[in-house]
């Protein structure tokens, strides 16, 4: 199964993506995690990405697209994948569909985790206190949410028009949300 998971920062994408990818037996590919791993390693990609991440801006499409193209070309993605945090721009949507159609593949579902703004802000503030992520400061959180609602939220309409979009309420316990996703995607357990 090929699934894209969308939703604002703080919606719980990472947590759910990890669980759902495990159930589906497909790799969980988080662009944010790949960028952070590169930052930790101090690789050239990490050095470039950090400037944008710490400002709450998106890493440029050229850099992000090349990284995802490389990751999706690996053998473990043949049977499917769960993409978390990609695509986030119109250009990335086009690039992903080009990558898939070049190997005669297509997405099965685009899942949007919906959470209201007050809830995501309070979750991000809590995560900042617990994990100390360098892009979880108040100003950067505000900017990341703005960028999400300007550039990424409208993309769901493109997938809705293709009949791929499934919306799931992201409020509640982790187990509640997982159960909703399992039902929405028709995952057999
Ligand atoms: P969140 O969704 O909570 O903002 P992520 O871990 O998914 O966190 O992403 C962290 C940062 O990594 C983003 O703010 C952005 O700078 C960068 N990033 C992740 N995915 C993409 C993408 N598809 N395009 C551009 N930048 C990205």
The coarse silhouette is globular
Radius of gyration: 16 Å
Helix content: 55-70%
Secondary-structure class: alpha/beta
CATH architecture: 3-Layer(aba) Sandwich
The distinct bound ligands, ions and cofactors come out as: adenosine-5'-diphosphate
- Element-by-element helix/strand order: EHEHHHEHEHHHEH
| Low-pLDDT regions | none
The count of domains is: 1
Strand line-up of the largest beta sheet:
2-3-1-4-5
Strand content: 5-15%
Name of the CATH class? Alpha Beta
The beta-strand count equals 5
Largest sheet: 5 strands, parallel
Average pLDDT value? 94
Number of helices: 9
CATH superfamily: P-loop containing nucleotide triphosphate hydrolases
> Alpha-carbon distance between the termini?
14 Å
| CATH topology-level name | Rossmann fold
Q: How would you describe this protein?
A:
The structure is a single chain. With 189 residues, this protein is of the alpha/beta class. The chain is 57% helix and 12% strand. It has a single domain (2-185), classed as Rossmann fold (3-Layer(aba) Sandwich), CATH 3.40.50. The protein is built from nine helices and five strands. A five-stranded parallel sheet has the order 2-3-1-4-5, sandwiched between helices. The protein is globular, with a radius of gyration of 16 Å. The model has no long low-confidence stretch (mean pLDDT 94).
């Amino acid at each position: 199964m090929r699934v894209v998971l969308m939703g604002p920062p703080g919606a719980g994408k990472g947590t759910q993506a990890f669980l759902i990818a495990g159930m589906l037996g497909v790799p969980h590919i988080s662009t944010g995690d790949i960028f952070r791993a590169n930052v930790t390693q101090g690789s050239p990609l990490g050095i470039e990405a950090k400037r944008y991440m710490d400002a709450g801006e998106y890493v440029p499409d050229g850099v992000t697209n090349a990284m995802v193209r490389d990751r999706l070309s690996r053998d473990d993605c043949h049977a499917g994948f769960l993409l978390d945090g990609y695509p986030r721009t119109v250009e990335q949507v086009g690039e992903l569909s080009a990558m898939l159609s070049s190997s005669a593949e297509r997405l099965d579902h685009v899942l949007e985790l919906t959470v209201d703004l007050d809830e995501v802000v309070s979750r991000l503030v809590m995560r900042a206190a617990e994990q100390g992520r360098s892009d979880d400061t108040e100003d950067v959180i505000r900017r990341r949410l703005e960028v999400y609602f300007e550039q990424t939220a409208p993309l769901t309409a493109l997938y809705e028009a293709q009949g791929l979009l499934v919306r799931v309420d992201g409020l509640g316990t982790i187990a509640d949300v997982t159960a909703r996703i399992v039902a929405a995607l028709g995952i057999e357990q």
